[in-house]
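I'll show an entry:

:::
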Amino acid sequence: MPVDAVLPVVALVFALAVLATAIIGIGTLCWFGLQLFTLPGVVVHEFAHKQACHLVGVPVLEVAYFRFGDPSGYVRHAQPDRYRKSFVISVAPFLVNTVVSLAAFLGVAVLVTTVVESSISLELLGDLRTASNEVLVLAAVLGWLGLSVGMQAFPSTGDANTLWVRSRAEWRRSPVVLLGVPVVLVIYVVNLLSWLWADVVYAIGLAIIAFYAVGSVGL
């Protein structure tokens, strides 16, 4: 084959290789950045699981508060002897992460409201440059924590699977476990909708609630 015919093919292969490498590199960086962004939420999520185990008296075998992998964190524990213990362990992150996220957003709301009111008093409405760098950094950190922790509030499909298996095994002996089935279904649906950023929407909803609450009390 003539050299003139080979060179375009080589150039095309080289260009495709460079493009593929760039795409993989960008994808890896995005994945790494997302892992770091969600780190606080994962830590709080697993901490909630672990503390729930201690609360109901279930031995904890192994804990990974955060790691670069799938899953990003986990808590291995002994098999609970009662359904209610499994339920508490599974749903604990929803309660704990929601409270922590809401508290962080309340902090942001208070800071922002204070800055805006200071701007009004100085007749500089809309000019947030009057805020100190420390206040802006604190607000940014609290906002990150609120969003990250709120995004990790919902139990995983693994938690839902555990509850579903226990429900199927025990509902005849104790029909009250059927009350937990709607919770299992909600967990499955939310995890499915996470592809549509349902977890982000939930965290943003907590932020809206926090700002509304602070605005209502007139801080």
About this structure: The two ends are 79 Å apart (CA to CA). The longest strand covers residues 60-64.
